[in-house]
Each structure stands twice: as C-alpha cells, then as structure tokens.
C-alpha cells in the first residue's frame, strides 16, 4: 500500500460528522466551567477595575494580556500612546496568556527561543535554553511589561462582554465584568480597541459520556493541579502520583511534553491515543551566553534576520544557502500548506492542485518516513511502535519535537491505549472505557487542546459581542460575507478596532512573530492617523474599495493553502469540516483565509505600503 493510500485509510477512521462539535468548549458550557478555574491567581494583588478606569474611559483598550496583547501595547507605546493611557483586559490573573495558564511539567516552547521570545534585541535578554521553559517565558513576559511601563495598565480577572461603536462620539463603549470577588460590571469608553485574544486560549474537552460522573481527580493540562500530583512547575517532583494509576488523554503537543514526567512518578500511566503525534528530535540545550553573543546576536537586526531565514525554509523553491537556526522545523518543507508557499511556481488555480499535491507528497515523504522509522528505532515493542507511527503528511498536524516521549513507551509502567482513531467510549465513576475494555484509574488528565484558532470571528475568539457601524454585528456580518479588512488589521465596518489575524493576514509557525508584525503595522496606521488628525478626535477605518481589493489579493494567493483539504482531522482543518464546505462558500472561505504565499511575502507587501506613506485605502475622519 502506498503512503498516500495509507494516509487516506487512517484519515477515514477519524472523520466524524460532528466535527468540532464533538468537543466541549469549556468557556461557554456552564456544566463544565469549573475546568477553567484559575489555579494560579492571587486575588489580593489584583487591582480593582473601577480604580483602573477613574473616568470610565481610556485611550487604548487592549483585549488580551498574553504575548500578543503585550506586543500591541509595546508597539502602541512606540507610536506615541502613553502607558498610563492603555488598559489591558484579561480574564487571567497575570500576563502571559497561554504561558500564564499552562504550567504543566515539561512545558517549553517548540520554536527556538532566540526566535520565539520577542524583543530580545530591545531588552538584551538571553534565553537560558534553546527552547525556553514555561516559567521563564512567563517571567520574561512580566519583565517586558515592567520594562515598557505597562505593569500597571492591566485589568485582570476581567471579561469584556460587549463592544459597541458610537458614531457620534467616535469611540467604543465596552461592557466589562470583573470577578475578583462579587462580580462588578463597568461600562467604559475607549477611543481605540485592539483585539488580541490569542490562538490557543480556550481549553476543550472531548464529549465523552460520563465525565462528570467520575469520582477521581480530573483536570485539563492547561490547569495543572499540583495539589493532586505533587511538585511544582519549578520542581516537577510529582511524588503524589507514586501509588496512582493515571490516564493522560490526548497525544498532541502538551501530552508529548508532559508524558515522560508523569511516567517517571506514576504507579501506572495509560496514554490514550486517537491520532499519533509526529515526533521529531528536539535537541534541547542550555544557552552559553558567550556563544549567544558571538554566534546569534551578532549585529543590529539579528533577530529579524534570523526569523527571515527561518521562514525562508518553508517553500518548495530553492532553500537559502545558510541555515541560521538549524532545527528540525527548518527541515520540514512540508509545512508550506499551513505557512504559505512563496514559490513563484506554486499553484495559482484549483486546476493546478493535483500536480501541486503530488509534488508536495514527494517532497514530504522522506521526512515522514524518517519520523516513522524513528519510532522503530526507539520503541522496543513492535506492536506499540506500529500504533505510534503518524500516517499523514507533515502539514496536517503541528509537528512535535521531543527526545523522551517515545522512550516513555519502553517503561514497564506505561501502557498505550490506542483507540483506532475513535477515542474513549465512556468514563465511569472510577474507570475509562475503550471498546469492551475498562481501565480503572485514579486520575484523568485531559491533554486535549483548545478551541481551533481558525474559524469564527474575533468576537467568538473573545467570547463577546461586537457591534459596529449601523448596528452591524461582527458575528453576523462575517458569517454572511466574511471579513472586510485591509491587511487583516482594520475592518471597514468596525472603525478604530485593530485586529490581530489570522483572517486575511498571514501566519508563521512562530505565532508571536505574527502578532508582532501585525502590532507594528497597526501602530503605524494609528500613529499616521493621529498625525493627520492634528489633535482632533478622529475615526480611522479602511475604505470599502480597499477591502474589496484586499480580499481579492488574498483570494488570488489562496491556492497553496488548499492542500489542507483531505488531511486527517485536526484544528488546522476544523476536524475535517473544511472538506465539507459547500461550493458556494469555498470562494468566501478563500477570500477570508491566509495570505497563501507566506509571511515574508505578506510583510514585503505591507512594508512597501507603509513606505509609500500615503495610507492608501485608509480614511481618517475628523
């Protein structure tokens, strides 16, 4: 059987009619709300929201205190907005976003930290490891907030529930609710709003019957309960697991990182798999500061150049002659259907796709074959090894990198429960059930990921209602017609509202790079608009003609991204739902999607637009 035939066979086992509906979205399900309780918050240190809005207003309201929100704040400060005029709202109890909530043992970034951590050149900070651990990333977020004077700008434990545009006063009216003690609601005004709610924000659970019947300890990996496991993120000595049978449900990036730590301490660990992860070498190491100064931070602009070199490896065209990063990401050319393909010979129309797909599979097969061979080299039990092999192309699921995950299955106290693509059938008061087999367990850990970052609108990403010009609902408008943005940051129906993609913008394997690129672009637009308004209150908005042209530009470059169709289900393809998109909606989906020729090409386009200096397609109304 060919690899492509095996890919199709394995995919068919995992396709479900309910798609993303098979999961429980914790954030909007009252019965499961307790799974997203914040175990890290120190409420006594959280400032009262009413004190943070003494006049019930601010100049810039940023929704999201993760790295994206921090970057938007930093770039807006550089554009001339004072830190004291910025308010950053987040439901969490601190900065960091996903790095605030996720504190499971073994957590680290999977992109080289010299690329992943932003503002290294500006702060002079040197990451301690090639792949920074979660605690360091969270601490660095706090350092950046302090360095740029925005530590006191945050309004934590606060949810934005509604944004409504007021055409008369040229400002947004926001309904906020803080849950520090008894919930208190505020109605505040903001001249400008930035929607920066992240890509992996809301945990999800599989819709397994009986979850709430389970009597043992049960939690999501993004809310790790060290009171159950023992230890801490700083010292992951999980000694309370020594007499416990533990089930980790899921085999994505989180499970790959935490599994070996749980296996080291648990009496027995069951790893429940629906789809195997594609696990490549990580090569973690400490950073030698002298090496870093001599080999990495060699000249002004070094981090941007390193990122550019990293991105240039995602192409089906000729690769750069020098590989500055040298990690396994840069040997995964098969990621181009997700990252975008700058190859000028790439597909232009649907008719080009069959030939393009054949070329992609030929290009990708050696890597995926090596990944599968790596399983045989490490896992001693042949039957287990066969079940751990990923039968899908690189671009279908985010690749994983770890040196201990596969070795975990050689331990006598570890059992792989492979569900053949179906998942768990049920959970009882003390067991998990797969098929006819029941497995008694004391602790269940859901490493089942997050709401998909694609699909929906910025309103859904933030769980709020956004009402723009003429009472237009963003949810309804985007559902009916798709986004109408210029460069992915400014929708013509929602003035003074800056977006952070990915719709009608680009993306990178390094999401923080993408956030910073759009933050820099948004800050430029706002700074130039303020200059043109010359001290007068104003509205900045894209024009209908400009957004129509931009949508066409995105559509014309969409073909390389179509390779995601036919993939094994994942959040990349909305659990296979993209394949079932009706023909009448496919054009809208392509127009609404990502810049298909890659982030460096996208940046080249918008940087040229900024260099022209005429704000083409933007109106500044005073």
From TrEMBL:
Entry keyword set: FAD, Flavoprotein, Monooxygenase, NADP, Oxidoreductase
Coiled coil location: none
Database matches in Pfam families: Pyr_redox_2 (PF07992)
Extent of the signal sequence: none
Claim: Oxidoreductase is one of the keywords in the record: yes
The FAD/NAD(P)-binding domain, residue ranges: 60-279
Record's keyword annotation contains Cytoplasm: no
Gene3D superfamilies found in the cross-reference section: FAD/NAD(P)-binding domain (3.50.50.60)
Example GO molecular function: monooxygenase activity
Cofactors demanded by this protein: FAD
Similarity field: Belongs to the FAD-binding monooxygenase family.
Protein name: FAD-binding monooxygenase ausC
The organism of origin for this protein: Lachnellula suecica
């Amino acid at each position: 059987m060919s690899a492509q035939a095996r890919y199709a066979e394995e995919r068919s086992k995992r396709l479900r009619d309910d798609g993303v509906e098979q999961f429980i979205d914790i954030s909007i399900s009252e019965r499961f709300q307790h799974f997203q309780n914040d175990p890290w918050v120190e409420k006594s240190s959280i400032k009262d929201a009413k004190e943070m809005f003494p006049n019930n207003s601010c100049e810039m309201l940023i929704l999201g205190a993760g790295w994206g929100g921090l970057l938007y704040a930093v770039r807006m400060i550089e554009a001339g907005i004072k830190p004291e005029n910025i308010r950053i709202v987040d439901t969490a109890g601190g900065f960091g976003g996903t790095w605030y909530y996720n504190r499971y043992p073994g957590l680290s970034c999977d992109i080289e930290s010299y690329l992943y951590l932003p503002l290294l050149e500006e702060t002079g900070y040197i990451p301690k490891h090639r792949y920074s651990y979660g605690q360091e990333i969270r601490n660095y977020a706090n350092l950046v907030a302090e360095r740029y004077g925005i530590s006191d700008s945050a309004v934590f434990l606060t949810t934005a529930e509604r944004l409504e545009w007021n055409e008369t006063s040229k400002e947004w009216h926001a309904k906020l609710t803080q849950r520090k003690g008894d919930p208190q609601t505020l109605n505040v005004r903001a001249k400008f709003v930035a929607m920066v709610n992240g890509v992996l924000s809301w945990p999800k659970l599989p819709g397994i019957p009986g979850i709430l019947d389970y009597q043992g300890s049960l939690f999501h990996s993004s809310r790790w309960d060290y009171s159950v496991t023992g230890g801490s993120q700083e010292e992951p000595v999980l000694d309370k697991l020594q007499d416990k049978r533990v089930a980790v449900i899921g085999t994505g990036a989180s499970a790959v990182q935490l599994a070996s730590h749980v296996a080291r301490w648990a009496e027995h660990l069951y790893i429940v798999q629906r789809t195997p992860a594609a696990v490549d070498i990580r090569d973690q190491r400490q950073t030698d500061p002298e090496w870093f100064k001599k080999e990495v931070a060699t000249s002004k602009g070094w981090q941007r150049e390193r990122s550019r070199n990293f991105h240039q490896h995602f192409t089906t065209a000729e690769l750069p002659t020098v590989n500055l990063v040298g990690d396994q990401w840069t040997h995964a050319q098969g990621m181009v259907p997700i990252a975008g393909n700058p190859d000028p010979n790439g597909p232009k129309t649907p008719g080009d796709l069959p030939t393009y797909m054949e070329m992609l599979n030929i290009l990708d097969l050696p890597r995926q074959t090596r990944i599968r061979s790596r399983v045989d080299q490490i896992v001693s039990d042949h039957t287990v090894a066969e079940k751990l092999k990923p039968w899908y192309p690189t671009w279908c699921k985010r690749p994983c990198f770890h040196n201990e995950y596969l070795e975990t299955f050689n331990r006598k106290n570890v059992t792989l429960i492979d569900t053949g693509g179906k998942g768990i059938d049920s959970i009882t008061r003390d067991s998990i059930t797969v098929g006819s087999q029941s497995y008694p367990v004391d602790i269940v850990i859901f490493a089942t990921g997050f709401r998909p970052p694609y699909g929906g609108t910025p309103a859904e990403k933030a769980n709020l209602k956004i009402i723009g010009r003429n009472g237009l609902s963003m949810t309804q408008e985007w559902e009916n017609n798709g986004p109408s943005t210029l460069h992915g940051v400014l929708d013509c129906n929602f003035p003074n509202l800056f977006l952070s993609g990915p719709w009608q913008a680009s993306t990178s394997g390094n999401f923080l790079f993408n956030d910073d690129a759009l933050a820099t672009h948004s800050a430029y637009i706002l700074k130039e608009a303020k200059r043109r308004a010359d001290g007068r209150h104003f509205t900045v908005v894209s024009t209908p003609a400009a957004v129509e042209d931009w949508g066409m530009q995105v559509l014309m470059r969409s073909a390389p991204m179509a390779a995601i169709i036919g993939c094994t289900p994942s959040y990349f393809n909305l659990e296979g739902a993209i394949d079932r998109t009706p023909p009448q909606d496919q054009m809208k989906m392509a127009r609404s999607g990502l810049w298909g020729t890659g982030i460096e090409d996208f940046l080249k386009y918008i940087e040229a637009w900024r260099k022209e200096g005429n704000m083409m397609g933007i109106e500044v109304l005073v």
